Amino acid sequence: MRDKTILLVEDNADDSTLAQRALKRVGMVSCLVIARDGSEALDYLFESENRESKRLLPAVVILDLSLPKITGFEVLERVRADDRTRTLPVVVLSSSAIEGDIERSYQLGANSYVQKPVASADFRDAVQQIGSYWFKLNETSAGKSH
């Protein structure tokens, strides 16, 4: 089961701040959880394994690839390997334009790959579009299930 939370996995403080501002524009900032590295992301997604109260999965994960401790690729592999998170939407948001990184992301199960624009305004626009899209998708899915 998923709630409307967006899990942003981003180690760059400037990019994280820009993402927060962009998501605020679409009313999603109150639903934003930030993980600063791959280890924090996996802890957030899987820590409920050892708790009685199960945390709902986020509606979407926005995942950078270049992360400390555990890379974005490793996070994506772990997410897709677990039955509980296998269908969790994951959008890779990376500055890498390397064709191999894009290909590998999709091979590992990314739903989308968005290249981080260099300009801060373009970056905010890209994140805002991701937030709007997944928010609308989540609203549509919730409406259909009733």
Protein model, in words:
45% of the residues lie in helices and 14% in strands. By secondary structure, it is an alpha/beta fold. It has a 5-stranded parallel beta sheet, with helices on both faces. The longest helix has 25 residues, at 120-144. The mean pLDDT is 82.
What's the gyration radius in Å? 14 Å
Please, what is the average pLDDT? 82
User: What structural class results from the helix and strand content?
Assistant: alpha/beta
User: What is the β-strand count?
Assistant: 5
Strand order of the largest sheet: 2-1-3-4-5
Instruction: Please estimate the helix content.
Output: 40-55%
Write down the oligomeric state. Answer: single chain
Task: Briefly characterize the structure.
The chain has 146 residues and is of the alpha/beta class. It contains 5 helices and 5 strands; from the N terminus they run E-H-E-H-E-H-E-H-E-H.
Topology of this protein?
Elements lengths: L5 E4 L3 H13 L6 E4 L2 H9 L13 E4 L8 H10 L8 E5 L4 H9 L4 E4 L4 H25 L2
Parallel strand pairs: 1-2, 1-3, 3-4, 4-5
Helix pairs in contact: 1-5, 2-3
Jot down its keywords.
alpha/beta; 14% strand; 45% helix; 5 helices; 146 residues
